[in-house]
Amino acid sequence: MAKKEDNISLIDTFSDFKENKKIDKTTMISVLEESFRSVIAKIVGTDENYDVIVNPDQGDFEIWRNREVVADGDVTDENMQISLTEARKTDESYEIGEEVTDKVHFESFGRRAILNLRQTLASKILELEKDSLYNKYIERVGMIVSAEVYQIWKKEILLVDDEGNELILPKSEQIPRDFFRKGESVRAVVARVDNKNNNPKIILSRTSPLFLERLFELEVPEINDGLITIKKVARIPGERAKVAVESYDDRIDPVGACVGVKGSRIHGIVRELCNENIDVINYTSNIQLFIQRSLSPATISSIRLNEEEHKAEIFLQPDEVSLAIGKGGLNIKLASMLTEYTIDVFRELDETEGEDIYLDEFSDEIEGWVIDAIKGLGLTTAKAVLEVPRNRLIEDADLEEETVDEVLSILKSEFEEDEN
C-alpha cells in the first residue's frame, strides 16, 4: 500500500505538468494518458483493459479497470477477470460473461509505480519542451528577438527570453564594441537553430546583415509597408555599412525616407549598432551606375567593366582616390561586397606631372600580392608610391622592409632609365 506522501507527490507531479505553459492542452492530455498507460503496462503486464481519463481543468485524473465476470474458481488472471461472487459484492445483478468496471487508485500500484510515473513524465516534459523550443525558434530564424543577459563568458553570452528559454550570442556574432552587463536587455537576430541529438541550441547574431535589415524594417514604416525594398546590404560590423534601397512609388525618395528628417530614423539604428556608419544609396540595375553610387562620396571619372569576370576598373582624379578607398580600405571593400564586383581603383595620370606608370605594368618584376597590398593603400602608379614615406609602405601595407626597398629600387630605376 502506498504511503500518503506518495499520493501527495503524485498530485504535485501532475500539477507541475498541468502548469507548464509551453505545452498545449491537447498534447498534455495525450502525454499524461500515454504515461499512465506505460506505467500500468509495466506493473501488471497490459493496459488494454484500462481507461485513463485526464481532467486538466480540474487538475486530476481517473483510472478505470474493466474485468470479465467468470465463475468462482475459474479466475486465471486477476487483472483481467473477476469471480462472480466478488462482482456481486458491488452489484448483485452481475452475471457470468458481463464486464465489471471499477475505479482504481493509482497509488494502489505502490511507490515504485509512482516513481516510475514521475520519471516518465519528467522525461516526456523535457522532450516536449525541447520540441516546443525548436518549433518556436525555427520559425523565427531571421527575425529580431529581445532577451536578457543571464551569464557572460569569454566566448559567448547566455541570454534568456521572457519564457526562460536559453539563447546563445557567440563572441563572433557580437559587434566589436558591444558591452553587456548581467540583467541587461539585448536585441539580436536569430541566426540559426542547431538541433543536434534533439537538443535545440538557439544562436543569435548582431553582426549579420539581416540584423541591420530588420532594424530598418522596424524604424522605416515604408519598408514594413512594402513601399520601399532593401535590395542589398553590405556590412563590416561596428565600422561601416552600405544599404541599397529601391522605391516602388515615384513620389517616395527611398534614401530620404530611410534616413528620416535630420537623420531621425537612422540615428536609432546607428546607436543600436555601436555607432556603425551607414550609407544609404539608391539601387539601380545599371551596374555601372550602381558601382558609381556604391563608391560614394568619391566622384568617378570613368569605369571599365568586365562583366564575365565581375571586375571593374575605376579611374579617378588623384584627390578622389583616398575617398574611394576610404579609411582602412572600408569604402571600396563595402562597395565590392554590395555590387559583387572586384573593384580596382586607378589614379588618372596627369600629363602635366610628366609621364607616370601604373603599378600593374611592373607585374613581371614585382609579385602580384605585393602590388595588391600597395594598391590597397590607394597607390596605383609608380610616382604615387615613390611620393609616400617608406614607413607607410612597411606599416600600412604590412610589407617586409626588404620587400619595400626592392619595390622602391625597381620603380626608381625605371624613371632613371627614362631620364638617361
TrEMBL record:
InterPro entries: KH_dom-like_a/b, KH_NusA_2nd, KH_sf_prok-type, NA-bd_OB-fold, NusA_N_sf, S1_domain, TF_NusA, TF_NusA_bacterial. It holds the Pfam family NusA_N. The keyword RNA-binding applies. Its main location: cytoplasm. Residues 142-207 form the S1 motif domain. GO terms for biological process: DNA-templated transcription termination; transcription antitermination. GO terms for molecular function: DNA-binding transcription factor activity; RNA binding. Keywords: Cytoplasm, RNA-binding, Transcription, Transcription antitermination, Transcription regulation, Transcription termination. One of its GO terms (cellular component) is cytosol. SMART domains: S1 (SM00316). It is found in: Cytoplasm. Monomer. Binds directly to the core enzyme of the DNA-dependent RNA polymerase and to nascent RNA. Participates in both transcription termination and antitermination. NCBIfam families: NusA. Belongs to the NusA family. This is Transcription termination/antitermination protein NusA. The lineage of its organism: Bacteria, Pseudomonadati, Bacteroidota, Bacteroidia, Bacteroidales.
